[in-house]
Each structure stands twice: as C-alpha cells, then as structure tokens.
Amino acid sequence: MAIAKPRETTEEKTKRLKRLIQVAKKQLDMDDDSYREMLKSVTKKSSTRDMLAWELENVVSRMVKLGFRVRNKPNDRIQAQDRQSKKIRSLWLELNQAGLVRDPSETALAAYVKRQTQVEALQWLNNKQASTVIEALKKWLGRAPSN
Q1: Alpha carbons 47 and 35: distance in angstroms, whole number
Q2: Which residues have C-beta within 8 Å of that of residue 117, sequence separation ≥ 6?
Q3: What is the pLDDT of residues 69-112, one digit of tens each?
Q4: Which of 26, 47, 77, 97 is the most buried (most CB within 10 A)?
Q5: With a threshold of 0.85, does the pTM exceed it?
C-alpha cells in the first residue's frame, strides 16, 4: 500500500499516487478499456483526474492485488550522511565481513532498521533510535566467532 512520506502535502501525495498508478498500468500491461473498468469498479470514476488521495490509494491496492509490484530503484533511497548513520553503515558492513549479514545492501540495512525501530528509513531516525541501532549492531558483532 502507498504510505505517505514525511511532510508530504496532499497535493504531492496525489501526484505521487497518480504516477504510481500509471507505472502499475504499464507493468500490468492493461489496455485503456480494462484500466477504465478497473477504476470504475474501485471508485465509480473512470479517470484519476477527479479522485481524492484515499481513492487513489484504493486503486493502488487493487492493482497490487492484480499483481503490481513496486520496484524501488537503487538510487531512490536518500542516504543519511550524519555521524550516527555512517557508524550504522560501518557496523553493518563489518557484520557482513564477519559473515553474520548475508546482504550488505542499503535495502537490507533499511529493513533491519525498520525491524528495530519501526522507522522506514535510516535518515528519519532520531538520535535515541540511532543509538539503539548502533548498540544492537555492536552487541551482534560482539557475538561473532573469533577467527
């Protein structure tokens, strides 16, 4: 489901959802008639032009049920550059070198951070949350078998 980004205005959210729907239409290889029928079945409207954000979210949800998969581009994520974020990345890569983390990617790190803090992205962590992640990574690294 499309989740609002921090400080995203309703207008920005609407534009983002409309773009996402167009990507989904292309990915699902929907012809115009099928697309309009699907819109009508979900919102009683045949165009996204007059839809509200919640209606657009319902359309995205239906398209996900039809098989649409959101594919994040590798450069989609804005990397946090503060000291704590750099430390988190450094520890993550150390864990990978120690064989405790299979996937050293930013995506895998973001998933770990979300499991630990319920925060979607590294750059959105506050100091306390970042410190919690750092300490957890240090403890994990401390349990690594010595060679």
Answers
A1: 9
A2: 125, 129, 132, 133
A3: 877 655 444 566 788 888 999 999 999 888 898 888 888 898 99
A4: 77
A5: no
